[in-house]
Amino acid sequence: MTSLAITVVGHDRPGIIAQAADVLSRCGMNLEDSSMTLLRGHFAMTLICAGEADAAQVEAALQPLVNGSLDVTVREVPEEPDVPPLGSSYLVTVHGADRLGIVARLAGVIADAGGNITDLTTRLSGTLYVLLAEVDLPRSTDVEALQGRLAEVSGELGVDTTMRLLENDQL
Amino acid sequence: MTLALPTLPSGRVLDVVRAPNHVLSVSCSLVDPADPSVVQLCADLVATMRVSPGCVGLAAPQVGVAAQAFCVEVSAHPKARTRHGLIVLVNAEIVDASRNEKGREGCLSVPDLTGDVKRATKITVAGQLPLLGERALITTDAFEARALQHEIDHCNGVLFLDRVTGAHALHARKVYLDPG
User: Fold this and answer.
1) Which of A25, A53, B65, B78 is spaced 20 to 30 A from B17 at the CA atom?
2) Which residues of B touch A (CB under 8 A)?
3) How would residue A88 be classed by pLDDT, with cut points 50, 70 and 90?
4) pLDDT tens for residues B71-128?
5) Could you check whether the bond before residue B20 is cis, i.e. omega within 30 degrees of 0?
């Protein structure tokens, strides 16, 4: 059994996912986790699939998908343990005028505090830059100190940042 | 049930400011409801809301004024249940809120994005009417409750962007074409 990481990036058109999934199915590769979105209009998909085919076979099978407008990469990846985080998850939201270095500086503050970003979305909409990051913090994190540091750096960047505990409604 | 609003002067249509304008991020000052400039601001908000397609509410920061004033009118909206007609309030706050529900919302000041935001579906809002400053207490639900919370957030410098439910809860606004 091999696990393959596949990325597909390029010009969007109807049917890319259907075609890619069909190829993987015919290669006997089970599509596991995947994420697809449009990034400034570009199709962007990342997925992990598992089965008996190797990376070269799958890459060759996906060649018809490329069609001059898509880049496809396939590589084998090791199994990663699926361990739930110890600690709490927070949502960091940032918005403000776009400028160079917003993600770098704020992600740096989070990393310095031992935080692990598990999900990230950024959008540039006109001059407005929006960043949403889900962050796992270890139990030992001084959350108030991190919030203070984020506020300090956000002030330097001229953006508004909030960090709040992600609600988890157990029903 | 409609709100007994005083007659406001004729309103002017103002430019709507967009994020990242700083005025959208500041907690606004309380205002004197009888101040003629506040009464005019309320009239301007209503006039600007009414000429903006699809707009069901507008707060003072959205026209560049850091003041606790807003208007809401959801009467024609299909998702509204309780409807109070045109609501214009200053110095409003939420005094009771319950039954949270997630919904996708947009904003005239963040024109190209929408976000999934959890809001109370049943609320009571206390505020003052412009001009004479009578205290108003509005209990409402569904879409009118969402709209009121969105506008009160504006008066406190909070955008829907600050309340989205997750990193994948922000979306590009879709423009729905009329199939007819």
Assistant:
1) B78
2) 18-20, 25, 110-113, 118, 159, 161-162, 164-170, 172
3) confident
4) 999 999 999 999 999 999 999 999 999 999 999 999 999 998 999 999 999 999 999 9
5) yes
The answer to whether the CB atoms of A127 and B168 lie below 8 A apart is no
State pLDDT tens for residues A13-48: 999 999 999 999 999 999 999 999 999 999 999 999
CA gap A75, A125 in Å, rounded: 33
Number of alpha carbons in the 13 Å side-chain half-sphere of residue B1: 9
Radius of gyration of chain A (CA): 19
Concerning whether B134 is annotated as a catalytic residue, the answer is no
Complex ipTM > 0.85: no
A2-77: CATH topology:
Alpha-Beta Plaits (3.30.70)
Q: Where in chain A is the domain with CATH 3.30.70.260?
A: 2-77, 88-165
Q: Is the distance from CB of B85 to CB of B75 less than 8 angstroms?
A: yes
Question: Does residue B178 surpass a pLDDT of 60?
Answer: no
Is pLDDT at B13 greater than 90 in this prediction? yes
DSSP lists the bridge partners of residue A119 as A134
Does CATH number 3.30.70.260 belong to domain A88-165? yes
d(CA B152, CA B129): 15
Q: Are B151 and B57 in contact (CB under 8 A)?
A: yes
